[in-house]
Amino acid sequence: MKPDRSKGVRSGVQPAALSIGAILRERREAMGVTLAEVEVATRIRQKYLAALESDEWDLLPGEVVGRGFLRNYSTYLGLDPNEMIERRRAIADESLAAVLADTSAGSTLPPERPVDYRPKDVALHDEEDELEPPRRINLAPVAAVLAVVALVAALWWA
Predict the structure, then answer these.
(1) Which residues form the HTH cro/C1-type domain (predicted)?
(2) What is the domain count for the chain?
(3) What per-residue string of b and e applies to 21-43 under the rule 16 or more CB within 10 Å gives b?
């Protein structure tokens, strides 16, 4: 049996005043569908559907997955999924701002600093080193040692 998605929430109640969960529950009840039927149609477990309807987001497997569930459930109920996601985003952003403002020290977060990503000019070696000629080895001590070795060898064999 396919549910009738043309029925809305209770008349006289402004949808903007209702929570996300209340809107979902009212719409599902107006359609005459049980959570078990929604689970079969959407492949979202009943415990997660119940968490969505009771606005208990901490029972969902995460914010991103919860928003996916909300989108699928809203589409199934014939509601605008983008509007429901925006409502959730507004609520989540408020709670996140409160958590970030309430740090362990009770102070606010520091302002962001600009970051310069341009590469810096770095000299790999001094320019003066390139202009110096290579050093020469002083051959006088080497020649003296060789002369002494030759003299000792000549006396040895003589």
Answers:
(1) 23-84
(2) 1
(3) bbbbbbbbebbebebeebeeebe
